[in-house]
Protein 1
Amino acid sequence: MYQARDTIEAGLIKLIADGDTAARQFYAKWLGEHGEKARAAFLHLDQAILHPPWRASLDGGWLDLLGVEWLRALGHEALQFSTWDISILPSQSVQITDRATYKPFQPQYLLISAEGTPRGAADWAVNDFRIGGFSQFYQSGDVPGDLFAAPEIDRYVAFKRQSIMPAVEVGLTVTYIGAKAEGIPFRAWLVGRLSSSSASLKTMVNA
C-alpha cells in the first residue's frame, strides 16, 4: 500500500483513481514542485509520448523511481522488459518476457527507452509482441520502436484491445538496428490501467 505524504496527496490519488483529470493535472504540478519529475512525467503520459521534454523525464529507468505501490494506487500497472546490464549488439535480436502478478490490467502504452543510442527508440525494431502466446501484430513484419509512441501504432498492433490477466506471459522480440558497435541494453515498459473498480482502488493509499 502506498503511503501518501499527507491528506492532500492521499485525496488527489483517490480522485485520480476515480478518473478525475483535473486532479491528475493538479497532482502533476504538485509533484513537480516537490522535485518528483519522473512521477510528474508519468501523469503527463499522453503528452510525454509526443513531446520530448516530458519524454526525457521518462527515460533512464524512470519506472524504478515511480514505485509499484504508487502506480497501483493511481489505478495503473506496468510490466518491465529489460536486458539490464547486457548490451544488445547491432543486428542482434533478443526475446524478453514478463507476467502480470497483481490484477488484470488494460494495456495503454509500450514505452521503449530512448536512452543511450543516437536515434532513440527508432534504433529498435520490434519483431513481435505476444500476449499469452498470441501475436498482437495485425500482419507479419517489424514495427519501428518509436512508432509505439505515436497514435498510428493502433494500425499495426492490437494489444490495447484486451485485458492481461495475472500469470499470462507477455513477450517482446526486438532487434537493435542502431549504429553503436558496442550495442546497448534494452528497456521498455508496458503501462496500462488496472481493470479493478475504483472502489477497490481507494483502499490502496494511506495518508
Protein 2
Amino acid sequence: MACLALGSACARPVLEEELPDALPKTDGAQGPDADDPTPDAGLESDASFVQPEEAGEPDADCADRDEDGVCDADDNCPDASNPGQADADEDGRGDACDMAQVDAGTVACQAETLPSSVKAGEATISNVRVNGGGASATVKKGQRVSVSFDYAFEMCSVIMTAQLQSVVVGLEGQGMGTCMSNALPCPASATGTNTISIEAPNRSGMVYVLLAGRHHYPSADCASLSGAQRLAVLCVE
C-alpha cells in the first residue's frame, strides 16, 4: 500500500490497484530483482566459447628459428626456410637442408689441400689432374672421370727383369682399383704421363682418389689399393 502525497502530508493511503500500469509493483522489494544480485542473470551465456586466434598469428610456445611458419618440432629442415616442406627424395630431411649440405660439402671439398707429389708404392706420382683440371673436381654421381698423372718408377733390380711397371688408381673405401701397365717392363726406366678413367660413386660427398706404382709379374694382379696414397679428390653432387 502506498500514500498519495499532497504537500508534505499524506492525505490517504493509495491502494495498489490504483497505481498506473507503467509503474512496477514492487511487493516491497528493491532493484530489478532482489533475489538475484546479478543484473544480467537472465541472459544465457556459453562458457565453452573461446575467442579464435587471428589468422597467421604465431604460437607463442612454438620455436621457429628459420622463421618459415613451421614449428621446429614439425619442420623437416629447421635451419633453412622451407615453408612448403618439400622433400623430393622422401628421406625425412627437407630439400632445403639437402641443398645446404651439398653446397657446404662442395665448398669444403674444393678447399681440400693435397700433396702435388708423393711416393706411393714403387713410384713417385705427381701433377694429378681430374678431368683436365686440378687435383679436385666437382662431378655427378656415377659420372666417368679421367685421372691424369705423371709417374717415375724406382730403378728395377736385375732380379726384377720382365716385371711390369704399372700404376693403380681407385677410390678410397674400395679394396681394388684400375691398373694400367706401362709399355716397357723392367729393367727399363719408367717415367711418363698416363690417364686412367674411373667412375664416381653413386653417393654425394667428398671422395679421395688413390694412386700407387706397382712392380709385378704379368700373372699377378696389380689392382690392389694397399699402400696407395691420396692425390686427388672428387666432390660428388
